[in-house]
Amino acid sequence: MYKYSAVKRLSFGYRSTGGRNNSGQITVRGRGGGHKKRIRIIDFKRTTTGPHQVVRLEYDPNRSANLALMRNLNTNEFSYIIHPKDVKIGDTLYSWNTGIPPTLPGETPLAKSQMIQPGNVLCLRDIPVGTVIHNISLKAGCRGQLCRSAGTCGQVLSTGQTGFAQVRLNSKEVRLIHVDCSATIGMVGNLDHHNTVLGKAGASRRMGRRPKVRGIAMSPYDHPHGGGRKSKGNKHPRSPWGWKTKGWKTVRRKKWFVVSPKWKAK
Asked: What pTM value is reported for the model?
């Protein structure tokens, strides 16, 4: 893992709002301070064709996944992508998000096994059924929006040359996505991100998280659990605004469901 700062022309400085809106009022509690950051400009579209070589792997403080710095072997331009699992330094990645190019006379056609390599980008119509994918776009020619955090992925259940493909996400939700949309092969790396132990309060403060006070330590005017002798009075766990916080279902759907897209191809 690269231990130094990001590429200057592929990043810019970021100043935290501390949970405040444009009038200075706190709208999100528990945020403030934190170490200074630089936002990395990530290529979610992968529209540049040609071979790209992985130069190094970098840590990104703005997301759970790591980044891979790539160099275009034709133009020597650099770009950032989300690091897929099993992609190493020195690997060569390709992008065919507009379709597989036709084979010219005298050239050897690429095998399907070479195309379905972690880190390559293909249209959903060119990806075999059962393939694990990430960085999935919802509109043709747009950036990837689904499955971008550490350890996440989707799986192609059905596809074709026209119409919509069925992609199952980690939440068991099945999305109908047009076959002209693109996706990256493989799973997002840094699978052990959820096992990270901060170890001390200072590590949390550097991430911009301020301390939180328990509800039972507040007064009854500030929290539903407040008042009394350090007991919430046999009440169900609730937020300061009175809605339930544990065991309250937020998705009103069945266990197996299909979500149709809002956008449809003409």
From this structure: 0.84
